[in-house]
Amino acid sequence: MAAVDYFITGDHEAARGLLAQIMQGQGFEVTASPLGGWNVTRGSVGATVWLGAFAGRDKQRLEYTMQFFDSDGMLVARLARTSGAGALGGAIGVSRSASVFTELDQAIGQDLTNRGLLANALHHP
């Protein structure tokens, strides 16, 4: 599993709203998960089942998660990708999932940095 922990200063609810906006701006849908985190998804399951990686970059189903923690008053938002993410698209799909995950990580990190909210980011392979 690959993951990134973003240590975010400021108001926790405002930071959550900002994170949702950033991910939606990258084409992802953000929905609540049963444990209080988010499911972060993009693309079509049907298109990916039928076409695999040929569904294309925007239509291939990609699924990530975001969990939230508190660390010394800072919000920690963990974006994670399981090792099999994109597997419906075969080897190309898995590679694309990793590439899109990196792009999403960069978009989040850049936006939080530009706003002066990112205290730290830890990447886990």
Give the structure's gist in a few sentences:
This protein is an alpha+beta fold and 125 residues long. The protein has helices spanning 12-25, 45-51, 90-114, and strands spanning 2-8, 29-32, 38-42, 62-71, 74-81, 118-124. The chain has 3 helices and 6 strands.
Overview of the molecule:
This protein is of the alpha+beta class. The protein has a single domain, classed as 2-Layer Sandwich (TATA-Binding Protein), CATH 3.30.310.80. The protein contains three helices and six strands. The protein has helices at residues 12-25, 45-51, 90-114; strands spanning 2-8, 29-32, 38-42, 62-71, 74-81, 118-124. A six-stranded antiparallel sheet has the order 2-3-4-5-1-6, with helices on one face. Strand 2 (29-32) and strand 3 form a beta hairpin. The relative contact order is 0.26.
